[in-house]
Amino acid sequence: MKDTRAMAYVNMYGVLGALENLCALDAAAREILAALKRPVSLCFDVKGGPCCTFHFSREGCRMEEGRANCTCRMRFASPEAFNALIDRSKPGLPVKGIGQLLAFLTGPFTKLTGRLTALLRPSEEALRERAFFEESTLLTLYVVAGAISALANEDPIARLSASYTVDGEISLGVRDVASVTIAVRDHHFTTIKAPSAHPRVIMEFADLDLAHGLFTGTASTIDEMCRGTIRLAGMISMADNVNRILDRVSLYLG
Questions:
Q1: Cα dist from 220 to 121, 216, 217, whole Å
Q2: Phi and psi of 107, rounded to 5°?
Q3: In the predicted model, what is the mean pLDDT of residues 163-182?
Q4: Which domain of life is it from (predicted)?
Q5: Using CB atoms within 10 A of its CB, is residue 232 exposed (0-12), middle (13-18) or buried (19+)?
Q6: What's the pLDDT band for 225 if we cut at 50, 70, 90?
Q7: Which of 58, 114, 116, 185 to pair with 133, CA 20 to 30 A apart?
Q8: What is the largest CA-CA distance in the chain?
Q9: Cα(22)–Cα(127) distance, rounded to whole angstroms?
């Protein structure tokens, strides 16, 4: 079963967190940002859940924990209410910078999240276009990476695996394409969208086609490891714990 509060963290750090990468990778998203008249720092403040600010400018998007530097803020009464924003586009309560907030939400933000949804929940027809397929798979990698840390820290079952995970960095990525870091300290996980300089574990997929197959469940991790298309190196017990958390990620994002 899914934990509602943990789902809110997955939605914040995994799904919405991918807006950073969307704005860096996607031409359509960059066009939307190019039309901004001024920067917007939008905070989603969830009672009993996560609180993060997304800084949007013509240069891109950057996510920051907390509300200190926001220009507008939307408050949600519960994790369930925040999840409704993601599932049903149901907004929370505007509490700061209401004019700017409403204009941004009904314009650029809706366009950006619409584009993100199209890439993360693609049609079979859209995936036939190679450039779209590659971008969709890469964005999914960033969502999965954010969700790993969200669940390791918040999901009751994933936290059991996190409690057995030693300190260090896990490198997760696609060979010659992209790499992210999952940093572990005192059983707390943090996703860093950059390569690890000194990984304790390396989990690397041979290409984007394999990554897509693993993310969608059409490829078997065990089979691909036997074929050598998944590189696994380093502290195996640490990798085992991450794989257990990945099972939870599949449940939440499925």
A1: 21, 10, 7
A2: -115, -100
A3: 97
A4: Bacteria
A5: middle
A6: confident
A7: 58
A8: 56
A9: 17
pLDDT of residue 222: 84
- Which is nearest to 74 in space by CA: 33, 48, 102? 102
Read off the DSSP letter of residue 10.
Answer: I
- The SS3 assignment for 193 reads coil
DSSP 76-136: ESSHHHHHHHHHH----EEEESHHHHHHHIIIIIHHHHHHHHHHHS--HHHHTSHHHHHHH
What does the block give as tokens for 63? 């996510």
Contact 95, 73 (CB under 8 A): yes
Residue-wise pLDDT for 229-245, tens only, equals 999 999 999 999 999 99
In whole angstroms, give the CA distance from residue 25 to residue 155.
Answer: 30
Give the chain's mean pLDDT. 96
Of 9-18, 207-216, 219-228, minimum mean pLDDT range: 219-228
Q: Model pTM greater than 0.85?
A: yes
> Which phi and psi angles does 74 have, rounded to 5°?
-120, 130
In sequence order, the β-bridge partners of residue 42 are 54, 72
